[in-house]
């Protein structure tokens, strides 16, 4: 880390790419087409997973649902980091378009097979496996797109809308899947998902991405990361990710980039550890807590819904505001507060009290997630966006699920409250990591031009 790195972090307004003119997100037709495509894809995801589980239960019985889902999760976890390399090497737009094409064809083909015949479980296993492989390419690529399609001063607003669309997809997908399943069975639900992916594909084809300029491809924080690493290629544009090198070499280069970057590194590591802490309480722990307290399933859903609602409100607020001063400092503070609130959910005696605390946790965590993701994207070089996105996605799909059994074991032995308290403490400890990086304290979001 160079002595002038704090100054670099504060003046991170230099573009990581040849950003388009500073149109507001809601007035930029190109960005709105991308958001619409992303929304269609997220709803399609929700419909697909529900249809897959329902079809597995019908064909193989309840015991086979977990097997089919696990088959899809394995390639997603194993190939996610490599997917980031592919996105950086070939460009995220091409990868996302290719992924949506394959997903649409795959799912429509399975819908046709289910409609025309009564296949065995192997069809769903093959679908889950192939879909998992494609997802490992899609997720890093879609994470690398926002910084490439809007002006850097609009990045927080776009990521706020993206987070809101994420939540919309999770809310809108299940009812649509339920309607399709009721009307025509799994084949109708798969057909609906395939059509949604096809719609996303059509919209994505119309999205245009400016090229990367070699002389402005790096943010200041990125320059300091290169300087600190002693890498002599400081003026060489990373895109298309050193094409010609091996995938493993490019992956190591991406991981080294994250580790040495004075702003991106601490925020990514902090976020990954935080996910490990808070995911078991909010998946396994909340179910056991409801059983211990005598809450109904609706009560547990109300608590989780309160948190999701709070996060949705705050991310939408960030999207509307478009600016947030002292973003690096507040990203750290809000993670600390949100972690404490999540830990406190396990100590609440009633559904109402738990929902109130969960609402607070959601409001604060939405701010934290929006600020952190914007700072990470704003300070990441264009040629590394895919790999940085893949590291964060890998934590969600490849690392945190490993701790779910640990959470269940701890809840069974010491009670659900212990899972919440320990998970919240782990996340709080993660929030302290950026305090050791002065560059994060002073990091600001890009200003409008």
If you had to describe this structure to a student in words, what would you say it looks like?
With 449 residues, the chain is mainly α. 77% of the residues lie in helices and 0% in strands. It starts with a helix and ends in a 7-residue tail after the last helix. The model is unreliable at 1-21 and 212-242 (pLDDT under 50).
Overview features:
449 residues, mainly alpha, 0% strand, globular, disordered N terminus
Number of DSSP strands? 0
Helix coverage percent of residues? over 70%
- Integer-rounded radius of gyration: 22 Å
* Tally of DSSP helical segments: 18
Task: Summarize the biggest pleated sheet.
Answer: none
Q: Encode the helix/strand succession as letters.
A: HHHHHHHHHHHHHHHHHH
* N-end to C-end Cα span: 29 Å
Outline? globular
Indicate the low-confidence ranges by residue numbers. Answer: 1-21, 212-242
Average of pLDDT: 82
* Share of β-strand residues: under 5%
Strand pairing plus helix content: what structural class? mainly alpha
In short, what is this structure?
The chain has 449 residues and is mainly alpha-helical.
Draw up the topology in text:
Layout: H1 5-10, H2 29-60, H3 63-90, H4 92-116, H5 121-144, H6 146-149, H7 155-184, H8 186-205, H9 220-229, H10 247-260, H11 264-293, H12 297-321, H13 327-345, H14 351-379, H15 385-399, H16 404-414, H17 416-432, H18 438-442
């Amino acid at each position: 880390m160079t002595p002038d790195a704090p100054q670099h972090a504060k003046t991170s307004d230099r573009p990581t790419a040849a950003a388009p003119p500073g149109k507001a997100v809601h007035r930029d037709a190109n960005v709105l087409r991308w958001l619409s495509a992303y929304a269609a894809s997220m709803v399609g995801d929700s419909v697909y997973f529900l249809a897959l589980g329902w079809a597995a239960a019908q064909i193989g019985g309840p015991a086979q649902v977990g097997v089919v889902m696990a088959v899809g999760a394995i390639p997603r976890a194993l190939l996610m980091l490599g997917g980031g390399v592919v996105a950086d090497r070939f460009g995220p737009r091409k990868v996302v378009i290719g992924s949506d094409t394959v997903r649409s064809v795959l799912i429509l083909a399975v819908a046709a097979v289910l409609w025309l015949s009564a296949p065995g479980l192997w069809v769903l296993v093959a679908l889950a496996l192939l879909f998992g492989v494609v997802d490992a390419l899609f997720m890093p690529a879609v994470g690398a797109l926002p910084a490439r399609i809007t002006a850097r001063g609009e990045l927080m607003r776009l990521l706020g809308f993206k987070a809101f669309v994420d939540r919309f997809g999770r809310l809108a997908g299940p009812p649509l899947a339920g309607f399709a399943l009721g009307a025509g069975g799994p084949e109708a639900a798969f057909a609906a998902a395939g059509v949604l992916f096809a719609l996303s594909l059509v919209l994505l084809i119309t999205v245009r991405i400016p090229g990367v300029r070699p002389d402005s491809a790096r943010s200041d924080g990125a320059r300091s990361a290169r300087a600190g690493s002693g890498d002599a290629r400081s003026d060489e544009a990373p895109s298309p990710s050193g094409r010609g090198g091996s995938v493993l070499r490019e992956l190591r280069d991406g991981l080294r980039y994250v580790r040495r970057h004075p702003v991106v590194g601490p925020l990514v590591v902090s976020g990954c550890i935080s996910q490990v802490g808070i995911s078991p309480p909010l998946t396994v722990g909340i179910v056991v807590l409801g059983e211990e307290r005598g809450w109904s399933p609706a009560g547990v859903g109300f608590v989780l819904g309160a948190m999701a609602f709070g996060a949705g409100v705050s991310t939408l607020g960030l999207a509307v505001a478009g600016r947030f001063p002292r973003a690096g400092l507040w990203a750290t503070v809000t993670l600390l507060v949100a972690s404490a609130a999540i830990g406190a959910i396990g100590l609440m005696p009633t559904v109402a009290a738990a929902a109130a605390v969960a609402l607070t946790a959601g409001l604060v965590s939405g701010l934290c997630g929006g600020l952190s993701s914007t700072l990470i994207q704003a300070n990441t070089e264009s040629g590394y966006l895919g790999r940085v996105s893949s590291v964060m996605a890998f934590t969600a799909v490849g690392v945190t699920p490993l701790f779910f059994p640990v959470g269940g074991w701890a809840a069974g032995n010491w009670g659900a409250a212990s899972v919440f308290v320990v998970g919240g403490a782990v996340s709080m400890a993660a929030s302290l990591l950026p305090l050791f990086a002065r560059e994060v304290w002073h990091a600001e979001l890009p200003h409008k031009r």
